Design the sequence.
C-alpha cells in the first residue's frame, strides 16, 4: 500500500515534465496509478470481505513507536474504490475540460491528492492518518487557489485551509489523547480494545471537531460553497467524492469502538441531521448549478455522519451504501455540470433552457444520477434510502424521537433539490430562448456516465452491493431477537416503503410549488449566516492581532529576550528545584589543566557584560566559546571541541559582518540605562537555571537507566567513532530533523534580509547599488595612500576579478595570495574530516563547517565575484540538494531489508556515509546562502 502511495507521488512529479510532449495524453498517464490501485483493491477484495484484512507495517523510528502501519479492511476497501475509482475518472475527464497549458500542474496536483487521500484511508496509525489528513488540506488549497489565482479563488482557498486546519489541530490533540488512553496509536488495536472514562470523552469531542470541519458540518460548512470557484474536476473529486469524505470516514472508522461513549451519539446525530436539513433547504435558493450541488453535498454529508456515527448495524449498512451512492451520483453530476458549462458558457439555471432536447445524452446521465440522489427505484440511492429509514425506525436509533422526523424532512428536501437541478439544467423555461450548445465529445461525457451507470447497476444488484458494504456493518452486533437487515429492491408493503413513496411525492410537490416556497421563505426570519460569521471572525482576529502586536512587539530585541528568558525561568526553575533529587558530591574539576580555560571563560564572560564596544564584546564572547572548546579538549570530548571551535569561528565572522551596519557602541553616552538592572537579574536567573539543570541532569544518571547501549552495537554500523555513529545512524532521524531546521532557519534569515536589507545577492552576481555612489577606484586609492591606514601590501593594480568591491585600504596582496593557495587545502581537509569522522573526530557537520570557512575566507578577501568563481552554483540548490541527499540516503537501507536511516554495510561501505555527505553539502549550502544574504544587506 505504501508502494501505491509512492507511485502516485512519483508519477505526479513526472507529469509536469511529460505534459509539453504528451499534451492531453498526460491526463491518461496520470490516471494510471489510481486505476492500478482499483485493480489491486479488487484483486484483494475477496480476501478482505471474507474477514482477512491486508496489513503492512514499515518501521520508521521504532524507538519512538513511529511506524508506517497500513491496513485494507472492508471500510478502507470501500474508500479505496471510491477514492481511486473516481480519481481515475476525474483525471480522464480533465483531458477535455482543461486547456493544454494547464495540464501539467492540474493533473500533477490531482494525482498527488489521490495519493495522499489513498494514504489517509489505509493508514492504521493515528499520527500517520493525521499526516495524510493535513496533506489533503494543503493540496486542496493549491488546487482551489490555482496557479494565477484571482482574489476570489485565493480567498476561497484560504477559508478552506483555515477552517480545516484549525479543526485538524483540535483533532490532533484528540488523537494523541486517545492514543495515550489506549496505550497504542494503532487504529486496529485501539478499536479492538477501546478505552473509556478519563479524558476519552474530551478526546472524542476534539476528534469530532476535526471531522466536522473536514466534512463541512454546521456551523463549519461555509467553506464548501465558497470553494465552488475551483474548476469543476476539483469540485467533482475533492468536494464530492474524496476530501469531504475524510471526516465521514473518520467517524465511520471510530464509531464501532466509541459510539456508546457519551457524548458521541448525540453529537453526530444532532450535527449530522441539522446539517442535512439546513444544507438541503439552502440548495433550493441557489441559482448556480454548482452551488446547488455544493449545498446538497453538505446535506448528504450530514446524513452520512448521522448514519455512520449512530453505532448500529442497520445504520452502518445504510451509511456505507449511501457513501458509495453519494460518491457515484455526486461526482457524475459535478462532471455533467462541467460539460454544460463547457458547452454553453454558463451554469446559471436562469439562462439555461431546453438543453434536454439539445443534449439528450447529457440529460440521460444527469437523470440517472439525480434519480439516485432523490432515492428513485431501482437505483442505488433508493436501496440506501430504505435502509436509512429502517435504521431510524426499527434499527436501534429510534430512541431519539426527533431523528426520524429530521431524516424525513431532509430526504423530502433532497428530492426537491434533485428536481430543481434537472429542471434548471435541462427543462424548457417560458420566456427564454433555447440555449445553443454543441454536443460534447463522447470521451468528454464518458467519465460522468460511468458512475451514473454504476449507480444503476448496484441498485439492480443489491446482493453485490451488500457483499461490498455489509462486512463493515457486521462489525456491529444485532440486538438479541432481531434479524439482521438485508438490502433489497422489494421488502414488501411496509411503512418504510410508504415513507419512501411519500418522500418522493412531497419532494416533487415542493418543487412544483417553488414559487410558494420562495414566498414562504421570504417571510421567515433570516437565520445567522455562517459565511458572515467567518468574515466577522477573521476581522476580529485581525483587529485583535493588531492591538496585541502594538503592545507586545515594541521593536526591541533586548525586550523580547528578557520576556522569553523570564518566562523560561519562571516556568522551569520552580518545577526543576522541587522535583530534582539531591545532587550529592559534585566534581568541580578532574585536573588542574581545566582551570586555565575555566578562568578565561569566566573572565571573558564578565568583561563582555561590562564593555560597551560592540566589536570588543563579540570578540570576548568568542573567547568564551573557545574556552569552552578547550574544556571539551581537556575532557577528551574531541568531536565536541572540534565542532565548538568551528561554529565559534563561523559565528564570529557572521556577527562581524552584521556589525558593519550597527553603531560601534551598545549604548550612546548619556542614554538612559534603566532596564540594565532588569536584564542583569534575568541573565543571572537564566544562568542559574542552566547550571542547576546541568547538575541535576548529570547526577540523574544511574546504572539502572534504560537508555540504549550504543557502544555494544557500534560494529553493526561499520564505524569506529561512537559520536558519528550516533549522529548518522542511531539518532539519524534527529539529525535529519536538525538539518531540516537549519535549512529552514537559513531561508528565514534570507527572507528577513530581503525585507529589511535588500535583495539576496547570489555569488557571482552584481549587487544592487543603494545610497550615494562611491567615488571611482583610483580616487579611493589616492585617498588611501594619503591615509595613515594605508598598508604596505595594498595592491596597486587590478589583477584579480572583483577587486573594485573592496576599498584599497581593505585589500592585501598577501591575504589574497594566501587565500587562493590555502583554499584548495582547506577544502581537501574538510573532505578528510567528512570521511574520517567514521573513525575519529570529524563528520559531515564538522567537514561542512571547515569547507564553509574556506568560502567565507574567499568572500572576505576577494568579495562577491571571487566567491562566485569558487562556488558557481546557486546556494539554494546546494542546500536543498544536501537535504534531499541525506533523506534519500536514509531510504537506501530499505533495499537491503533494514530500517530507514540505519547504517547498512554493502561492499564494506556503510550506507550512513551517504547520509553524512548530505549533511556536509547542506551545511556548505547554508553558509553560502548566508553569505549571499550578508552581501545583499551590505548592498
Sequence:
Amino acid at each position: 500500500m505504501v508502494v501505491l502511495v509512492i507511485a502516485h507521488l512519483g508519477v505526479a512529479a513526472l507529469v509536469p515534465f511529460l505534459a509539453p510532449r504528451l499534451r492531453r495524453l498526460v491526463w491518461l498517464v496520470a490516471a494510471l496509478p489510481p486505476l492500478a490501485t482499483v485493480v489491486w483493491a479488487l484483486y484483494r477484495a475477496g480476501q478482505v470481505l471474507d474477514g482477512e484484512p491486508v496489513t503492512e507495517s514499515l518501521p520508521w523510528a521504532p524507538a519512538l513507536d513511529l511506524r508506517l502501519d497500513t491496513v485494507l479492511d472492508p471500510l478502507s476497501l470501500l474508500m479505496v474504490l471510491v477514492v481511486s475509482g473516481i480519481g481515475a475518472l476525474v483525471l480522464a475527464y480533465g483531458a477535455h475540460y482543461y486547456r493544454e497549458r494547464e495540464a501539467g500542474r492540474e493533473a500533477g496536483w490531482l494525482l498527488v491528492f489521490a495519493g495522499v487521500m489513498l494514504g489517509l484511508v489505509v493508514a492504521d496509525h493515528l499520527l500517520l492518518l493525521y499526516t495524510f489528513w493535513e496533506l489533503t488540506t494543503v493540496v486542496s488549497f493549491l488546487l482551489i487557489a490555482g496557479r494565477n489565482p484571482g482574489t476570489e479563488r485565493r480567498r476561497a482557498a484560504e477559508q478552506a485551509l483555515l477552517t480545516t486546519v484549525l479543526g485538524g489541530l483540535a483533532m490532533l490533540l484528540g488523537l494523541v489523547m486517545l492514543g495515550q488512553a489506549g496505550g497504542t496509536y494503532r487504529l486496529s488495536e485501539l478499536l479492538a480494545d477501546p478505552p473509556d472514562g478519563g479524558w476519552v470523552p474530551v478526546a472524542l469531542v476534539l476528534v469530532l471537531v476535526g471531522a466536522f470541519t473536514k466534512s463541512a458540518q454546521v456551523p463549519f460548512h461555509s467553506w464548501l460553497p465558497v470553494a465552488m470557484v475551483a474548476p469543476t474536476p476539483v469540485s467533482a473529486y475533492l468536494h464530492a467524492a474524496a476530501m469531504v469524505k475524510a471526516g465521514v470516514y473518520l467517524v465511520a472508522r471510530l464509531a464501532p469502538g466509541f459510539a456508546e461513549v457519551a457524548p458521541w451519539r448525540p453529537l453526530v446525530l444532532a450535527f449530522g441531521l441539522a446539517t442535512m436539513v439546513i444544507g438541503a433547504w439552502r440548495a433550493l435558493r441557489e441559482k448556480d448549478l454548482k452551488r446547488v450541488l455544493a449545498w446538497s453535498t453538505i446535506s448528504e454529508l450530514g446524513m452520512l455522519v448521522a448514519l455512520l456515527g449512530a453505532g448500529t448495524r442497520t445504520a452502518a449498512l445504510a451509511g456505507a451504501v449511501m457513501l458509495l451512492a453519494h460518491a457515484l451520483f455526486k461526482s457524475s453530476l459535478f462532471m455533467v455540470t462541467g460539460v454544460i458549462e463547457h458547452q454553453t458558457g454558463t451554469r446559471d439555471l436562469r439562462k439555461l433552457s431546453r438543453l434536454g432536447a439539445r443534449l439528450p445524452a447529457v440529460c440521460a446521465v444527469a437523470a440517472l444520477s439525480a434519480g439516485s440522489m432523490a432515492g428513485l427505484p431501482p437505483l442505488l440511492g433508493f436501496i440506501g434510502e430504505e435502509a436509512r429509514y429502517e435504521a431510524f425506525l426499527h434499527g436501534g436509533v429510534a430512541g431519539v424521537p426527533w431523528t426520524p422526523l429530521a431524516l424525513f424532512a431532509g430526504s423530502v428536501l433532497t428530492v426537491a433539490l434533485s428536481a430543481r437541478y434537472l429542471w434548471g439544467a435541462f427543462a424548457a423555461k417560458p420566456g427564454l430562448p433555447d440555449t445553443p450548445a454543441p454536443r460534447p465529445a463522447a470521451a468528454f461525457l464518458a467519465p460522468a456516465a460511468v458512475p451514473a451507470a454504476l449507480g444503476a447497476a448496484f441498485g439492480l444488484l443489491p446482493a453485490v452491493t451488500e457483499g461490498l458494504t455489509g462486512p463493515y456493518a457486521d462489525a456491529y452486533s444485532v440486538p438479541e431477537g432481531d434479524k439482521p437487515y438485508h438490502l433489497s429492491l422489494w421488502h414488501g408493503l411496509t411503512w418504510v416503503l410508504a415513507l419512501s413513496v411519500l418522500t418522493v411525492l412531497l419532494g416533487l410537490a415542493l418543487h412544483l410549488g417553488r414559487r410558494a416556497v420562495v414566498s414562504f421563505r421570504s417571510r421567515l426570519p433570516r437565520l445567522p449566516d455562517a459565511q458572515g460569521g467567518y468574515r466577522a471572525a477573521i476581522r476580529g482576529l485581525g483587529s485583535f492581532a493588531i492591538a496585541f502586536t502594538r503592545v507586545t512587539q515594541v521593536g526591541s530585541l533586548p525586550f523580547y529576550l528578557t520576556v522569553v528568558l523570564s518566562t523560561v525561568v519562571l516556568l522551569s526553575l520552580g518545577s526543576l528545584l522541587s522535583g530534582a533529587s539531591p545532587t550529592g558530591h559534585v566534581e568541580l574539576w578532574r585536573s588542574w589543566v581545566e582551570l586555565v580555560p575555566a578562568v578565561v571563560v569566566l573572565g571573558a564572560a564578565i568583561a563582555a557584560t561590562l564593555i560597551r564596544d560592540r566589536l570588543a564584546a563579540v570578540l570576548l564572547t568568542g573567547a568564551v566559546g573557545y574556552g569552552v572548546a578547550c574544556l571539551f579538549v581537556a575532557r577528551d570530548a574531541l568531536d565536541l571541541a572540534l565542532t565548538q571551535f568551528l561554529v565559534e569561528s563561523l559565528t564570529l565572522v557572521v556577527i562581524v559582518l552584521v556589525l558593519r551596519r550597527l553603531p560601534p557602541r551598545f549604548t550612546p553616552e548619556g542614554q538612559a540605562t534603566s532596564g540594565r538592572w532588569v536584564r542583569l537579574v534575568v541573565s543571572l536567573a537564566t544562568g542559574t537555571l542552566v547550571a542547576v539543570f546541568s547538575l541535576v541532569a548529570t547526577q540523574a544518571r544511574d546504572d539502572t537507566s534504560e537508555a540504549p547501549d550504543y557502544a555494544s552495537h557500534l560494529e553493526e554500523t561499520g564505524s569506529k567513532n561512537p559520536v558519528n555513529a550516533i549522529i548518522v545512524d542511531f539518532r539519524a532521524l534527529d539529525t535529519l530533523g536538525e538539518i531540516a531546521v537549519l535549512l529552514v532557519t537559513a531561508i528565514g534569515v534570507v527572507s528577513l534580509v530581503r525585507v529589511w536589507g535588500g535583495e539576496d545577492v547570489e555569488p557571482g552576481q552584481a549587487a544592487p547599488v543603494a545610497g550615494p555612489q562611491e567615488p571611482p577606484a583610483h580616487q579611493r586609492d589616492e585617498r588611501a595612500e594619503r591615509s595613515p591606514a594605508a598598508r604596505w601590501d595594498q595592491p596597486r593594480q587590478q589583477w584579480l576579478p572583483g577587486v573594485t568591491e573592496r576599498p584599497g585600504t581593505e585589500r592585501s596582496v598577501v591575504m589574497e595570495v594566501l587565500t587562493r593557495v590555502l583554499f584548495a587545502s582547506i577544502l581537501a581537509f574538510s573532505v578528510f574530516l567528512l570521511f574520517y569522522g567514521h573513525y575519529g573526530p570529524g563528520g559531515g557537520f564538522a567537514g561542512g563547517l571547515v569547507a564553509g570557512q574556506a568560502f567565507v575566507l574567499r568572500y572576505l578577501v576577494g568579495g562577491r565575484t571571487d566567491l562566485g568563481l569558487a562556488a558557481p552554483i546557486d546556494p539554494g540548490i546546494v542546500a536543498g540538494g544536501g537535504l534531499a541527499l541525506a533523506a534519500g540516503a536514509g531510504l537506501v537501507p530499505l533495499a537491503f531489508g533494514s530500517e530507514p536511516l540505519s547504517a547498512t554495510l554493502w561492499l564494506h561501505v556503510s550506507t550512513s556515509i551517504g547520509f553524512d555527505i548530505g549533511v556536509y553539502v547542506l551545511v556548505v549550502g547554508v553558509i553560502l546562502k548566508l553569505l549571499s544574504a550578508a552581501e545583499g544587506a551590505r548592498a
In short: Residues 151-182 form the longest helix (32 residues). The longest strand covers residues 54-61. DSSP finds 36 helices and four strands in the chain. Residues 89 and 447 are 5 Å apart (CA to CA).
